[in-house]
């Protein structure tokens, strides 16, 4: 149907409406002709003749009026449709703006009861600092029957841009966690306890790939659990975490290979040593595969000659010997639904070398654990963890992580979590057991321990 036909139909319809409006017609009557006889047909003809007719100016006037009204209605409909259509807004780039400084932090405290009522066991750091530990085998929840200020943390980050195309990250800490993280630091626990991270970030492009390069002190990429309890599924950390590396000093580069694969590689001093303890370097590589939001697979390897940072005061700094260590770390994180998360974490390590005045270190260790977390409501969640850690000595040496003969540690942990805005509260039960007496009690060393812990983290 062409445009002229549509226009004609519209005018005809408008004209019909005009004819039907009695108020718009002329009052001039039409005279009827005389007829000798009134038949039915003649009566109808007469009635039609008596009906008023429209003058031509009146029809034209009202036709234009109706066309104007129809045009106005059409414009109103188009305006309504335009209002419903989504606006074509320019999307803002994700993340902080160039040169923007972001400050965040947290406060972490806890109170726990160990059913064995252990006393203090002093741990002496390489620099001579003493840390009293009640709950042996624990990473940071070390106190029994007294409140513990675990961690105060301040994170300061600057995005690259605005005259300086380098980013900056600083993580400053106070509390027991800072001292325990640096408990084997060759440069002195007290000297570095307040410094968790300090590094600059650049973004060069090499061989067609955009790189993110960090240089300085940064937390380790190895392991599923991290230093901040609120970023883990349980409040306490596993043996796997406690007996692994916490941080490194050196340089690392990260690149995205494609939408699913990314790669990170680094050259660092070694395990937990800002001040180098043996002038040797450690290298590592970590490959990450991420299939959307449902599955993440991480595989990493690290190897090099380690000293005081990995073993503590048992290995004297500078010339105390060296132990060649290799660590293979694998994590699989599955989130089949928005509420359920399942994690598998496995690592395998080997060590071989000699330590001055201590003897030969030789052997392997294996850490295995599984975690399930379920978000019952937006505020309430529970998490369960089961793990096993084995430390195995080689021929003629002592085991690399605990310095004993064969050790087999297991733990079972169940955590309830309730979150209100930025306050995360957790109630946790944990049972530890070992094949030998590795834990403390009021009566001496024992092979198991149970703790009930309440912890809170306030984020800002």
Walk me through the structure:
The chain has 460 residues and is an alpha+beta fold. The chain has 2 domains: 1-27 and 46-77, no CATH class; 110-144 and 219-459, Porin, CATH 2.40.160.10. It contains 7 helices and 19 strands. The strands form 2 sheets. A 16-stranded antiparallel β-barrel has the order 1-4-5-6-8-9-10-11-12-13-14-15-16-17-18-19. A two-stranded antiparallel ribbon has the order 2-3.
Q: Outline of this structure?
A:
With 460 residues, this protein is an alpha+beta fold. 17% of the residues lie in helices and 44% in strands. It is built from seven helices and 19 strands.
The first-level CATH class of the largest domain is given as Mainly Beta
Q: Give the radius of gyration.
A: 40 Å
Structural class: alpha+beta
Question: Which architecture of the largest domain would the CATH scheme give at its second level?
Answer: Beta Barrel
- Low-pLDDT parts are 2-38
Query: Which percent band covers the strand fraction?
Result: 35-45%
Going across the major beta sheet, what is the strand order? 1-4-5-6-8-9-10-11-12-13-14-15-16-17-18-19
Query: How much helix, percentage-wise, in residues?
Result: 10-25%
What best-fitting shape do the alpha-carbon axes yield?
Answer: globular
Straight-line N-to-C gap: 67 Å
What is the count of helical runs?
A: 7
Keywords:
2 domains; two-stranded antiparallel ribbon; 460 residues; 16-stranded antiparallel β-barrel; 19 strands; 7 helices
